[in-house]
Specification:
The protein has a domain of 51 residues. It is 88% helix and 0% strand.
Length: 93
């Protein structure tokens, strides 16, 4: 069995030559393959941020509604007290 010597320079030349073509092709492929993925992830994060904003606004709105109900109750009580005081101050007929 005869073993042929390996020509290192030829192998290095072939590898380097193929790398000159494969690296740009791989870069372009990755750019066009990864760009939609990155855009989808960015949109997903925007949607998540939108959901958090909506939840925050819902909480604030609920708090404002609660405060409005408390104010309405207070105004009704003040009106009742004012009416009662007015009846007390008026002369009996």
């Amino acid at each position: 069995m005869n073993v042929m010597p390996i020509d290192i320079t030829a192998i290095v030349g072939i590898v380097m030559g193929s790398m000159m073509i494969l690296i740009p092709v791989a870069g372009l492929t990755l750019r066009f393959a990864i760009k939609p993925i990155v855009e989808a992830v960015a949109r997903g994060r925007e949607i998540q941020g939108g959901k958090q904003t909506v939840e925050l606004l819902e909480r604030r709105m609920a708090l404002m509604e609660q405060q409005l109900q408390q104010l309405e109750g207070t105004v009704e009580r003040v009106a009742e007290v004012t009416e009662f005081q007015h009846k007390l101050a008026s002369p009996v007929a």
